[in-house]
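User: Can you predict the 3D structure for this chain?
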Amino acid sequence: MTRQEVITAIESEVDRAYHKHGRDPWGRHEFYGVIMEEIVEMQDEIFKGGTIPFDRNKMIEEIISVAAMCLRYLETGDRYLDAEQPAYLRKIMD
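Assistant: Here is the predicted structure, written as structure tokens:
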């Protein structure tokens, strides 16, 4: 994958998550829970082997999911810390 393809995949994943779960900001503890779930899924893919074949494409999908959830948190900000301030990267949300 090229860098642009990776960026496009991350953006698509974050948009899919917005569509599925809404665009409300998370608190940092919610972000921690979401990101840890994604990291565990990525870890599961990384450590496959033996009777469960390793799938590099699935591992890349999980890496993209981790990156997308980090981007989402940065875009929407923290519901508690940023209540009166704009999010770090404020995306124009259509």
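The CA atoms of residues 78 and 84 lie 10 Å apart. The mean pLDDT is 87.
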